[in-house]
Amino acid sequence: MHGKVFAGSVVLHAAAVVAAALVLPERVPTRFGGGGGADEWSSRAEAVASSALAGTLVAGLFAGLAAWVPRLPLEVVNVPNAAFWKSPEHEGELRRRLREDLLGIGTTTVLLLTAVQGALVQAALSGTGRLPWWFFAVLGAWLAGVLGWVLSLALTRYRVPRGPGG
């Protein structure tokens, strides 16, 4: 399931890059200051190539890490309650959870890049070269989500399960 959702996010990002290639003007804002205004402009080809490369690198990184989990030496894994999770009887569940976590954070990161692509297109087509307000809301939600995820990993996801009646 997590693999299919991750793959779907990658396909969505690729579609956003293709759409951007079709609608972007020749001059595109590609770097923005803290206030959301464009600091630097590039060509459409450079903007599309950069977006495609960023998406490919992020997707490749998380897909590669998730594929590596079955062969990952557990000595390099830092997990709460390590003695429990690294024991032979729980190793399979630990690896399954690690793979899910990697694909989950990979999915959200690729979706963030897709939002970046959409914001870039809107900034370019608006003529103002300013990021739209919704991009900051998406970025804030992504940051809050990642923080919440990290806290849940540390506090609940890898705690020792209680036995029956526990």
Keywords:
166 residues; elongated; two-stranded antiparallel ribbon; mainly alpha; 2 strands
Short description:
The protein is mainly α and 166 residues long.
Fold and architecture overview:
The chain has 166 residues and is mainly alpha-helical. The chain has one domain (2-157). Helices cover 67% and strands 7% of the residues. It contains 5 helices and 2 strands. The protein has helices at residues 2-23, 44-68, 82-85, 91-126, 133-157; strands spanning 27-32, 38-43. It has a two-stranded antiparallel ribbon. Strand 1 (27-32) and strand 2 (38-43) form a beta hairpin. Helix 1 packs antiparallel against helix 2, helix 2 packs antiparallel against helix 4 and helix 4 (91-126) runs antiparallel to helix 5 (133-157). The protein is elongated, with a radius of gyration of 20 Å. The two termini are 30 Å apart. The model has no long low-confidence stretch (mean pLDDT 93).
